[in-house]
Design goal:
single chain; (3R)-hydroxyacyl-[acyl-carrier-protein] dehydratase activity; Thiol Ester Dehydrase, Chain A; 141 residues; HotDog_dom_sf; alpha+beta; 2 helices; MaoC-like_dom; 3-hydroxybutyryl-CoA dehydratase; 5 strands
């Protein structure tokens, strides 16, 4: 069971980390049918600008929603809005940490706004933004 809106508080934080693999990228490509050459290890185009193939942004976004669904609130919720800026690419083999922080709670609407920051194994910010979620349960059932 996750947190209810009354269990959450301003400044509350949670995070998760994950290393993205070539298999993760292939699975994402198959599910989305997005076969952009910058995601393909056997293509040459990404070598013009990067040292390794780029991980689709959708996978980094998935890590963010994983923190939300597992930790804050860690229960039934719906993503209402997302706003992200990708500062640097994520590459295969990078360990990415997604951190969320509660920055606003609207108890009338059951909305929670969370600041989002993702950084790589070197501590470099790769994504920043915010999400608004609708927390499904207002009280314990």
């Amino acid at each position: 069971m996750g947190l209810t809106i009354v269990d959450m508080h301003m400044g509350q934080k949670a995070s998760l980390s994950r290393i993205f693999t070539e298999e993760d990228v292939k699975a994402c490509n198959e599910l989305t049918k997005d076969f952009n050459p910058v995601y393909q290890p056997d293509e040459e185009i990404w070598k013009r600008r990067y040292s390794k193939p780029v991980v689709p942004g959708l996978l980094t976004e998935g890590l963010i929603t994983q923190v939300i669904s597992r930790k804050i609130p860690g229960g039934p919720c719906i993503l209402l809005q997302k706003e992200f800026v990708f500062y640097r690419p994520v590459h295969i083999g990078d360990e990415i940490t997604a951190e969320i922080e509660v920055i606003d709670i609207n108890t009338k609407r059951n909305w929670v706004t969370q600041k989002v920051t993702c950084f790589n194994q070197e501590g470099t910010e790769v994504l920043k933004g915010q999400v608004v979620i609708l927390v499904q349960a207002n009280d314990r059932e």
